[in-house]
């Protein structure tokens, strides 16, 4: 039986370092093409669209705008509202716009990696925004370097734009060049590509990353998630299909589907964690999927208890599902401090014992003397989970039953999620029982993979669950190989 | 019957201006007194304590530290983590510390108004942090000006510190001078006062503003709310009593209670809106009070419906209570964008039709075709409420039943809440039926005052509900009089 | 004979720290009173006036403006153009304005010390800008503290404004209260005081700090130096007299001279170093005074040489004078890097040998093989001087003859110059011969005090030369006493 | 005869816009290669070197450092000390370093244009810093674009680095690839190129832009001007020859000179205006050249006068020369405000009459009642010159005789000086007499081209004087053609 006091004093230096304790969010892309004769503030719409996608990346953001002749852009480190003010948005006048929010890896030259990337080429100016990761980027980069290409960033996106430009020499149209690029690259991508006069939306052949199409008054819209369509009052038209190239030109929208249909492999973690609950991806509601996961979790791992609570915000939907399935009342037992952000100072070693309930605090009256079921969407390194269990026990919970609405994460992701090796994954090192002990919970249950894959009810796609089962849809580097995060 | 389309196109210029649509949060105070021989990082503790109180004020913050000889301080505009970094905290070495977060009114000299205010006086250095509002500050200020006092801010706190200093000429101790100050001033206050070697906590005679005492390893702690005690692992000892002066000196804590017991009048809105749900004030749990308000609301204003949802975050607790009372399932139907902050650009007139669902978006699958009960804690101007109803209807809600877990706000507050006159209060101008029409809801029900006042279960205090019934515990200025916000 | 190589490798840790090697510049004040019916951009004029006075203080600046009803202000750390932009100047609308630039001492609460200080008092709003230092500030402060006054800064200016406010209780007019304040305080001051409707200019009874009056189209102007009048195209009217109170009210200017005439004691270092060469103070031209000092220096300390050069910018005028007196050609031999400012990184110990000619570099062709006379205005600590001599020798100068156009500084200043004790003064510790050796010069000559005091040709005042001869016009603290810098 | 009053009230909107009134300064480059076994702080040296070159560009700066394996860099907008602090310099650890200061043209993507440009290529990492302008950059860019190259900036430097990379496919060594690049490009350049392990310095075949080699303890140094060698205590070795490639590798320095000797064409304006007076370029002293120009000007355009003054700082050397040649005493008559920088607010239309003497003020005692000769190095648009003449007349100068130490500028420069067309050049539109009238001078004399070209005494090069005589050493675009500024 776990001894709470011991845990609290544990000397694990990473214990408070939650930066690594969530799989990092990915990038988001957003595009607007206004139809001729409509006065649409495309930069303004993109600002609000990126705002709705901010959860997909908080480190840098950018907007590029075309007036059908010239592309101008602004990008920088920071949150969307930190980078853009009214003056800047007024400078970005045009009829088409591409935006990007980015979760950026560390490094000295981070600012150079902000997107959209905007270049001059034989196709004139090109702007490219990319969500995803290219698995064979290093190899492609080396090949092109041999042939005299230079690279100014460590960004996969620069590889893509160079490939498109090379192929355009032997192509009639930009979309033909994009098609050839899609043959070369292995990986995940939701892309928006803009020339001075035309816009393309592209989704990788497996559909690993999402991309959807909407329409608002006088304009077409492309976005990583449907919540960004809602933000700008655009009607959802449909998801871009895996392997599809959407072309918006001369006020018309058309498609090229150069590849044979493959088993599609949408990233299951879009439903588990990444996407906003109000988004609908490939016809399945994100919130409904999480709620359903909670119900299935209750069936797979029932427990006698007095209250079900969720870890805010990611475990709330599943907790309500768990409660409804079991009849155990749903309650609020944890409060999350909304002001913990990038500049928060982590407690130093000496402060850890005193500063334990800064990010999450328990509501004592809700848990005191009770048997508590606590639901979260996933466990990566386990340190946050352990702290939450401790906070509940300190507040007087009689029992704490941890339930996780997805299976143990055992394999690294090569398609956009920032888990660079197995070393950080607690489920790769420990058994479920060992994890239970490590996090000081009375019982621990994970939703099964079979259960999880049924949760996006009504989805029209298959899923990539490689991080859970190791079945990568594309050949990936040997473990231990270095690879750069693409997005 | 409300016509959704008309509302959406309404030309009310304030429609999107939500800054005035919530009663603004107040200030928070926090103090640490470390006992002799203990190495306590008092500035670090204060940083985490203010972090936990950040919801009470986001415009400025400050920390003053004493090493028992000299007080040094740092304060500025912004959030706690924007103002303090490791280097700055390391400069603030000492054994006692006072911190403050402030909701500041607009004005050219705002930075001067940041607290704690630190002065040199016949008592040596004094630091003062104040949560509350002094009703007769202007009169007191004028009297002192006549006698040659100068004022460098428009802050009530400067009035208090001048009064204390004046009275110290005829007083044996600092606490005696504070007592005399308490006779002079009319208003609400939770104060922390620090000299180079001693700390005082003071609560106004009616106990309008909260203040509590805790103890952590080697230190006494004072805080506006108990959630800040939790953040630094301090044990809650007790609330400071109305009219009590707590003195911490020579490693001992003692009290002076100079006034006859009065009917205490804790601000009821601490439970309705201000305080964090995990706080316990005057023995009542904030979250439990809100949950209870939801239950009573269900009894007072029942409705047939398919789902109960709460406006995040303030309406969630009451929505769960409403659901549990009625048996109507609790669900998630609204998502709040967590990244909307001070620098967010409000949509311009031309953008309003397109940018409606930026701050709150509906989860379509949760509300489509359903009869929805939506719960919020209060309605001030009504514009946010109307937009939320519209968002739900646009997402397909068949009916929207608005329930408010507090009564209509009809009177201005003179004790710290930033409603400067009746003009902004929709409930002062319109009947409940007119408000229902204005916000486009199918039905509207407010919790009664009687119901609300019973919700802080186990509270040991009476309440000030002047903003709801006009019964001010202290004589206040005539309506229309100018008065400055104190905190 | 000095061995250049030894000096270069000296291990004196302060060797490169030039911050202490010049007597720091003081504050500057500027005021505008626009006559009724004239549309004068008073904040704009003050911006340009402070720009011209920027050499008197680079650490903070501020402008307060009155529209004859209310005073608004803005002040911050930094240079004038860093603090004020067009938007801010447009906010400062009014018909009277007071500005200040400040050389500020170090300390945690520096921002609080920025001026003008603006308060509310029985006289309504008051703004005060002060150049100078009050010798008995501590004593006055303590007296007022005993009587219940609080102080929010360590600034002498707060003492002055409290005194004025106290005395206004027993005075008919503001000027009468100022008169009484002048009886209380001992020290140097050039003040500008502004109520909502009236402006006062005040100079201390000894006239230690300068202040002058000008008139431009539609407005009266007050300024520390005449160069600021030139900057706003104002005609110089006259210097304010020692002990005079100038009152500008109801579009009229009048004076009160409450004191008997004293021997005036204008700070001689205004001519030696502080003031801009294009200023005229008490009827003497600053540039002409420096030129004259160079001529007298040539007579007192002749030398055979090939070229005379000045240390830019402070030694140039005297060098031309020396050249004209002796017939030795004037030349350019040193270049000063114009970009060395507050944020320049001083070379670390390891870099000193390689980074010697960053701030001053020699023009080799001008000095190689020549006997060089190098002129500077003063020597404080000697380290900069030594480095300049080394640079010249390294460039091939055969001989380097140092000439200083003022006498050795042996005593601290209590009236505004930032030399806090004798310890830093090389001339207090070493004889002229020892200094010569320390700075590696072949010969060294200082202008005599008699010579210096004759140089401000046509001046209508006597001088304070206490830092040179120890004859303080006012009783000063014992050496070693702490005292705060006033300005 | 010029009527001063009229001029002062002239309504020319550009009258105060001095940004265009000086030919803009160019870029500066600096490189350090430390020899094996020496602990040299290469980033620190580069910081001080760029400091000494700051006059050549104030808009952006950057430093790239190699530890013989990897290149890291930092660059940003602003002055050197604004961009680099101690923490940043400590991050830039290595044994080789390249730095750049840039005068940048306006545009939305300015930050992207900061240098050094650092890329990954078949040669590994490459860093390139460039001073100069490539005349045929557009054509080369288009050719490469046709072959599939993308460009991320509008910077000529990106053209150069792409060319070098292309040619490296068919080259044995990097220097061979550079040679081939030199055949392709037409224009001016002083380049420093760095791989992870080797450094190249390159000067264009006509030697239009300067570059020199120095040696300090344990390191070779390359710099645009010798004053930067002095700053880091490096001995001047020699100038890089026109068309020479200097290679520093394996601790050895060697050269390739692939081209036949051409008539060299060093930009004469390096002596007239760009370079620092303490620099020596191609064996001629800059200060001595300016002094000599003043002497020749006195011979060509003698005048009877009482005093000779220079416009600070650019006209001082020539003024001393003029004085020595004629015997008319040299004096100080103008003061320049040292604090006028990038953020200075230009006076608005309404302020112009009042704010005339902000940047330059006259010293009245030096010019009143006198016949004044005023010397400047050049006149571009004439507006600054006119204002200076006005300031002198307003101060009482009886006569003002303008003398210019270079000939009228009549032709645009395509090699790095920012005069984009003839339209801005007063000397292209007006005769000397008309200019004299426009600037309100009593007489006006320009130094002849013959005279000027003799002034860099001892120079080993011929000169490009195309902006004075239209004789471009390289074929240039037709007037009116757009071209981008390279540096």
Automatic annotation (TrEMBL), chains A, B, C, D:
Any GO MF annotation of the entry: amidophosphoribosyltransferase activity
Signal peptide: none
Record flagged with keyword GTP-binding: no
Binding locations of [4Fe-4S] cluster: 267, 413, 464, 467
Residues that, per the record, bind Mg(2+): 314, 376-377
InterPro entries: GATase_2_dom (IPR017932), Ntn_hydrolases_N (IPR029055), PRTase-like (IPR029057), PRTase_dom (IPR000836), PurF (IPR005854), PurF_N (IPR035584)
Protein name listed in UniProt: Amidophosphoribosyltransferase
Family designation: In the C-terminal section; belongs to the purine/pyrimidine phosphoribosyltransferase family.
GO biological process, one term: 'de novo' IMP biosynthetic process
Involved pathway(s): Purine metabolism; IMP biosynthesis via de novo pathway; N(1)-(5-phospho-D-ribosyl)glycinamide from 5-phospho-alpha-D-ribose 1-diphosphate: step 1/2
Cofactor: how bound: Binds 1 Mg(2+) ion per subunit.
Glutamine amidotransferase type-2 domain mapped to chain residues: 27-251
The species this protein was found in: Ruminiclostridium papyrosolvens DSM 2782
Stated role: Catalyzes the formation of phosphoribosylamine from phosphoribosylpyrophosphate (PRPP) and glutamine.
Residues at the active site: 27 (nucleophile)
Reactions catalysed according to its record: 5-phospho-beta-D-ribosylamine + L-glutamate + diphosphate = 5-phospho-alpha-D-ribose 1-diphosphate + L-glutamine + H2O
PROSITE patterns per the UniProt record, alphabetical: GATASE_TYPE_2
UniProt KW keywords: 4Fe-4S, Glutamine amidotransferase, Glycosyltransferase, Iron, Iron-sulfur, Magnesium, Metal-binding, Purine biosynthesis, Transferase
Gene3D superfamilies from the UniProt entry: 3.40.50.2020, Glutamine Phosphoribosylpyrophosphate, subunit 1, domain 1
Needed cofactors: Mg(2+); [4Fe-4S] cluster
